[in-house]
Design brief:
Elements lengths: L4 E5 L6 H9 L7 E4 L14 H19 L5 E9 L5 E6 L2 H8 L6 E6 L14 E3 L2 E3 L1 E3 L5 H4 L5 E9 L7 H18 L5 H20 L1
Parallel strand pairs: 1-2, 1-3, 3-9, 4-5, 5-8
Antiparallel strand pairs: 4-9, 6-7
This protein binds zinc ion (ZN).
Length: 215
């Protein structure tokens, strides 16, 4: 399997500016970036049947799949949401070993989410999310992203949803926080994370937290 990673920003049009700001701050050469110029709306339009909302998701993700196939081994799909009580993030993936490596870091700002198919029984071990020192692990989610994407044999799909306190393009600290997570996910994908990394990552994330309190 190819391991070359790609960061995708702007699948949801409202989140593109945030993603572009993050993309500008990533270490050069670390990851390729694909910015979707015309993403789809984040939410269902008022009165719209959820069928159409799902269909639009299906179409845009299948297009993305065509573009990345045989070129990339890891697709990191960046999203942004709101959490008024503080910055945090969810990482969605089918690969339990990548999620477990993230879990080992015990970051309270990070929740790992195991994607499973709607029609498949959830393995008993993953039935319940567990909380350890504020870190929630292995929540289980179904997704409207097509299975050809999140369960592709050709690449590993990783969804990263960063929750910030205000809508819009985000702040310096939000971008820094997200860059740190992108770096972390890439290193977990490569199996590069060690015990020493935990302190390093915690320091980086605490730094982002502290700076934002000063603002
Ligand atoms: Zn989104």
């Amino acid at each position: 399997m190819l391991t070359r990673p790609l960061l995708v920003v702007g699948i949801h049009q409202e989140e593109r500016e945030f993603g572009e700001q993050v993309a500008r701050r990533l270490r050069s050469g670390q990851i390729d970036v694909l910015c979707i110029p015309e993403g789809i709306p984040q939410n269902k339009r008022p009165g719209e049947a959820s069928f159409y909302h799902r269909l639009r998701h299906r179409e845009i993700y299948l297009q993305l799949r065509q573009q990345v196939l045989r070129r990339y081994g890891l697709i990191l799909d960046l999203h942004a949401g709101i959490n008024e009580t503080g910055r945090c993030a969810d990482v969605y993936c089918r690969d339990v070993s990548l999620l477990s490596r993230l879990d080992d870091l015990e970051l309270s700002e990070l929740r790992t989410v195991h994607i499973t198919a709607e029609n498949r029984l959830t393995p008993p071990a993953l039935e319940k999310a567990s909380v350890h020192r504020g870190h929630i692990t292995h929540a289980v989610a179904h997704t409207i992203i097509p299975e050809e994407v999140w369960n592709s044999r050709d690449f590993l799909y990783v969804g990263l949803e960063v929750y910030v306190t205000q809508a819009g393009e985000g702040t310096q600290d939000d971008w820094f926080f997200t860059c740190t997570l992108v770096d972390l996910i890439l290193r977990c994908g490569d199996g590069e994370i060690t015990e020493a990394s935990r302190d390093e990552v915690n320091r980086a994330l605490e730094g982002a937290q502290k700076n934002s309190q000063v603002d």
